[in-house]
Amino acid sequence: MPGQRVFLHSRTLPVRMVAPSLKLQDLIEEIRGAKTQAQEREVIQKECAHIRASFRDGDPVHRHRQLAKLLYVHMLGYPAHFGQMECLKLIASSRFTDKRVGYLGAMLLLDERHDAHLLITNSIKNDLSQGIQPVQGLALCTLSTMGSAEMCRDLAPEVEKLLLQPSPYVRKKAILTAVHMIRKVPELSSVFLPPCVHLLHERHHGILLGTITLITELCERSPAALKHFRKVVPQLVQILRTLVTTGYSTEHSISGVSDPFLQDQETCGAEEVQILRLLRILGRNHEESSETMNDLLAQVATNTDTSRNAGNAVLFETVLTIMDIHSAAGLRVLAVNILGRFLLNSDRNIRYVALTSLLRLVQSDHSAVQRHRPTVVDCLQETDASLSRRALELSLALVNSSNVRAMMQELQAFLESCPPDLRADCASGILLAAERFAPTKRWHIDTILHVLTTAGTHVRDDAVANLTQLIGGAQELHAYSVRRLYNALAEDISQQPLVQVAAWCIGEYGDLLLEGNCEEIEPLQVDEEEVLALLEKVLQSHMSLPATRGYALTALMKLSTRLQGDNNRIRQVVSIYRSCLDVELQQRAVEYDTLFRKYDHMRAAILEKMPLVERDGPQADEEAKQSKEAAQLSEAAPAPTESQASQLLDLLDLLDRASGDAQHPPPLDPSPGGALVYLLDLPCAPPPPAPIPDLKVFEREGVQLNLSFIRPPENPALLLITITATNSSEGDVTNFICQAAVPKSLQLQLQAPSGNTVPARGGLPITQLFRILNPNKVSFRSSPKARPRDSRSHGC
To answer: Composition bias, kind Basic and acidic residues: at what positions (predicted)?
Structure first.
């Protein structure tokens, strides 16, 4: 109506406020300020939603800012794959700020598993051709980080052109990109081979370092490149000599060492290789190159300051180079002496490196390493477990016939105080060394008894059988052994191997224990009741294992024929164990009780002393049987060719010759079966044998085993076989184990190998020494079907 006011009421709708997108710095502060992981996820989810919306809107101005925030989120471990295509758009942009973030995103978000990485190949090619140094640097960094094999093949010509650009900034990055390309596509070696020779004349240390890295990669992957760059060894030697003699330079020196990164090798993630490693590769198996660098290596080894860690690193690489090339004997002794000085360093890492390196050299330079034996023994007292373990391994490797007494004293003292995790290794090492180098049987027995008394629970399973066989074969030491073992058993019955040996010895030679006429030990008055009571104590002890109780029960039974008193006590103990819960012990007790009750007239004959081990008795019959079987097999086998039969004869006849009475074998009968009938059974004559040629016994997938033979003139029955394992494949051979077996008439000793990993691409070979003794000069025959076992990755 006119003049009347009309009021219209409207409802106000709520407006939804959207939080603005954060800047990168604000995002970082908010994420760091989150008190819980849930709060952090909430902040990241909200910001990722803003980033997705910005990408959908196609905002070209702030795209690089959004991608920078997404990269930070990716670094925290959250998904950021939706930003891959934005990286491609920023790389294709003409603005440097966009390219910088785009290339960074490509390095973080793209790899060979994503097909999207191939889409930037053309952009990288264009950027490399622009001539703008910052852009070229970004493109080269990206290519060296995530470039696939396809990208490397496509962009290799552009990178080759940049290697000779005047700008040091671009050349350094181009060289590192070439290293990545060689690792990805080794066949590109021919592309980068010519520029490397020119780059060696550079005075810029960064470019020179990258060039040496590139040359090393080429030499490791291409035999042609290795042959080509051996011509530049004098130039490399001159470069290193200049670094050593120019003195202190504030621009390229670290801790007073002139550019240790060029002299030394440091490996952290990406492999950096310097001059010493390159010289080591070039001098390996090459006499001329090795001779060229000998004087320089001596100069580096004597003039390098070792007061700082950088100098120690240079010296260590020098030692590795000396040991890997054909160096002079005096230079190798100098290298071992450097490692000996490392053992006196206060840094545990340096001492560990020295012990590990000496352990690798002990087989090839044994006498030089022996000079540092006191220092190595002192390292046994290291508190660090890894150091003491390495020192123990090296100490055991240094034991020989001339120092076995002194070394055993040191190792036995260490056994008493060593950590529990080293006790088993130490005890086993002492037993093996004593068995190998024992000067007398009595010393051998005393050594084993000391180990059993100190660490009996940690010895090998065959220690009991070996000691009982040793004591049984030493008839003149029976009285001495039984008294020593009785005293040890009376003091301690917790060491089970010791208790088992003592019970066996008391059962066998209990009569000698009671006689008391042993002149080699203090007089001991023992009566029968004390001996029986001690064995009963072993049977009743809760610490005794079932096997130990079996030894003690058998010892009591044997004493029933060796003691003069009444056997009623022994019969009562035996009858008690007829109802024992252990089946083995119960069976023994039932049989022994039956022997008492029904066959008492045969008990003395059955329980006689065990006979001495005779190596020429049953073993000779067994070998004759094997020889007969081999002859039968040879009749049915086809005849090998003359060359094959000759090689087989040379290999198998090594152990059957004697230095003073060997002659050349007559020609093999080419008729079927004639080639193998006379193997190892040929007549001998006075002329000394010719040197035994080396043999290649195994080769597969790049792994090769070679045998070299030495027969010491002073011991014609001994043959030393050195096995050398090399690996020319691309991958390391780990857990390397080499085993061998010989007939029972021979004695085989396997020394520890120089390592358990055969390095790839012709690295430092592994060596192991076999000592084979043929004391009785027994002739034997070999079956033509015998062959070595092998395994590609774990042993042979």
So the answer is: 613-628
